[in-house]
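User: I'm curious whether this sequence folds into something compact or stays loose and floppy. Could you predict its structure so I can see for myself?
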Amino acid sequence: MGLTVEEASSIGGMRQGRLLAGKKGLSNIVSHVNVLEAVTEDDDHWDIRNHLFLTTFNFAGNDTNRQVELIRQLSRGGCVALVFQVGLVAPLRPAVLHAADELSLPLFELPLSVDYADILTPLICAVQGENGYLVREASLVQQQLLKEMLNGGGLGSLVSLLAGHFRRSVAVVDNRGVLYASSDDWVGADVIAHLPQYVAPAKTIVRRSAWITALARRPDIPIEGFLIVNSPDAVAPSALEAAMLDQGAALLTLELAKLRVADETYAEPFRTWMRYLLAGDFETARTFASAQSLDLASLRVAVMFQRVQPSQESWTSGDPETRSAWQAIYATEEKPLVFEWEGRLLWLPSIAPSASLAEVRIAVDTKVRRVWDRLVDNGIAVWRIASGAPVGSANLLHQSVQDAEAVFALDTPEHVNGPVAYDDVAIDILFRQIVSQPAAQRWVESVVGRLASHDLLQRSELVLTLETFFDSGQSHKLAAHRLGIHPKTLKYRLDKIEQIMGGLPIRDGSQFALHLALKLSRSSG
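Assistant: Here's the prediction. I'll summarize afterward.
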């Protein structure tokens, strides 16, 4: 099965192509025809033997070195020809053409007026001549999809058309597991939670409840997304269904890539603006926001996600734990402003601009709790979630980010039991900031140093006991209850404290100073 590149160049839309380089490779055998929109460093492991690829070549940009490396990488993998459309990148430089000649990899240039369908359908029919019926039927599906796309139908319309042909529910998700389109209410939550981390583009794998076809690549992540077809009977796709999956994957890839680029294009200016804010360059941040026409009215609070046990290795958007966070956020907010930020995820929830600070707290607590509940329901509670204090305007949002970072710095046990808001631990954060000052450390040592030293040597809890006693309004019964000890044990400890300290202050001012010193002492660890 197959034909030579030279024979392929005279079929369908390829007849309008022009050979730029790689003439010695015209005798290469074409066994597969596919669309290529990005290549990553580990694509050497991707089986592309005897593939003729159609591409915009846009992902390589106008970087000559990158274009040459792409030619070499494709040749190493066994690619037999590369076809791209003129005008999407600058004319290829001699170094690129020389590499193609050297490697005998034919490069064809096509006018923009030639549709992919005019190339794909005839070539696939020619390559798979003995499966002409399947190819023709699958091509009809592809033509319907292409017509819908050219008429302005988005990813949702294409997914609905496919669902009609398969008579099964269909969904498209990106590499993070974020749902971009679904034919009905079925979104394959269980399937999405266990997506494979590596599948070659256009390759379909069969899981217990779904067919999963991997879509295109990007330079920084292995998989762009997945086409998921509901298959509760665990039956593998028929030959015709497999052909339809192959035909539909290329067009769905293009639509998903456009939406992903749009999302990233939307988020990136906000990331840049936030960098200016956190660097203290407020004037540049203001000017940048104005120049980019950023809508900041709904940004009033920052929420950060951090791994419970941060790994020394870098993590990606496609690993299961990170996918779970993206999915939970996207399920909570329709178009969230969320991006990776210094090894964490930073989410800027959308809040009604007219909301008071109290209303902002309630709104963000509700959203964060929904995210947490989804993480727990999916059995993936590996994230700490911290929300900063609400601010009056977006120009102060850096303060909320710093608040969230300060919450993480506390490293309190509460983090593993749910989200923590800055307002709930603000006093502890402030105590820690105060006690970090040398003058405060000397004062704390002079007031409760002997008591703290006793605790350290005897492994006792006298500092905690006295602090709890003051927190309880000096009620023996309430303090004992909070400490989980018998009132007589509390009395013994208080007597011991009085003995060590030479008595307890009775004046209000002195009691307040001692109470504060106790808290600062515990905040210092």
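Summary: The chain has 18 helices and 17 strands. The two ends are 73 Å apart (CA to CA).
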